[in-house]
Amino acid sequence: MTSTATEEVLSFNTPHVPHENAIEAFNTILPTIKSEIVKSRHHWDKHEPKMWSRAVGLSDHELTAFTIEQDLVEVSSAATSYGNIILGKIRIPAVDDDEGEGFVHVRIHDPPNRVR
């Protein structure tokens, strides 16, 4: 039987300010994160524009003008048999309006024995 990596199966630690290893893991795939954000917005703009409505008027570059060092504000992780799952909360600096700051939530996999 295959189990799914869910909160019910995994034991995530308490959300906290990212440590160096999380910053490094997110930086490793930063281009992919930014690309997926742009793809998500373009997809949802066609099907449900409300999803990214707070980013209306922002260029793709403005939307993804964040750095992991400054804008990864919170992480939580859990160990699995195939590495660590890291949940991250990334601030989108260009989204700051009457509703407050804008964030995206990202889930990444940090495999064991990754060359650092």
From TrEMBL:
Protein name: Uncharacterized protein
